[in-house]
Amino acid sequence: MPVYPGAPNPYAASTTRLARTQPAARSTTAATVTNGDPIPERHGTVPQGATRAGELLAAGAGRPTPRQALLRYARIYINWDAGTLARTQRQLAAISLGGARAQALQAAASYQHDATLRRSDVANRGQVVSVAAGQGPAAGQWVIVTSEKTTGRGDYQRLPAQLHVTYAQLTHTAGGWVISAWEPRT
Hints:
This protein is α+β, with helices and mostly antiparallel strands. It is built from 6 helices and 5 strands.
């Protein structure tokens, strides 16, 4: 998926917010440091029920091989339009775990009401060029290369097709292989 100018980095915002709100060299209480987490999750504690809910996968989420799981996820990830982007991201969340799920849920929330994408009628279409086990600095990960074309009006008009590289990790579950990390590289 292309990176959009001005799109927020969900991780940078929370890190910055924490750095600004924590007083230096003093003890703090939950009342003075509110990092945006729900009260039951503050101080690094996630309720057991919430943890289990985050581990649930949609029926049929797993695939028999890592390659099949990667191909499925990549094809969904790169083919969307402004009207379906939030739904597409929720679909990715349902078939992934860990960081990949968190990233997809954050994107779904961000894009659900994105007027610029809708007004510009943005769409992305692509195909998977390559899926391979990483080597060298990418050892232990999978490397996915896609060819993508983003279309739309205004700033999105006449953009050339581009190659994109993504690093991914998988987890083997009882239902098969699922994506647990999805890291597009620019």
